[in-house]
Amino acid sequence: MKLVFALLTGLVFGTGIAISGMMDPAKVLNFFDLAGTWDPSLAFVMGGALVVTFVGYRLAWRREAPLFGGRFQLPTSTDLDAKLIGGSALFGVGWGIAGFCPGAAIPALGTGRWEVVLFLIAVVVGFFLRRVLLTVTPKGSTS
Length: 143
What we know:
By secondary structure, this protein is mainly alpha-helical. It has one domain. It has six helices and no strands. Keywords: Membrane, Transmembrane, Transmembrane helix.
């Protein structure tokens, strides 16, 4: 049953991405073009997502445990370290250059555009590169 709900959640997310037009990188990039062809629709999509998330968390926290899991798994660290800030910056730069974020790129695979495939390959390579760098660099090292 857990996989059925995961599939349904993904379908709802993908449908929302498609309806909002966020699978089109030009629409996303126009949001960042304040001096040119600015398109504020991404702000409305994000605002809608924040409202749904806010309500969803309020409902979820009323439960003792998640529907499909033994306990809620929350981050324990509140540190703003170089990995978090660097990763966030890299995400933002990549999103601004490509017009895709990983969440929107997965449903965009259905468009058949080669740019989407290239972007997702770069994301996967980045995941593996991060893993390799973390195993090569000793903990506590700043290099």
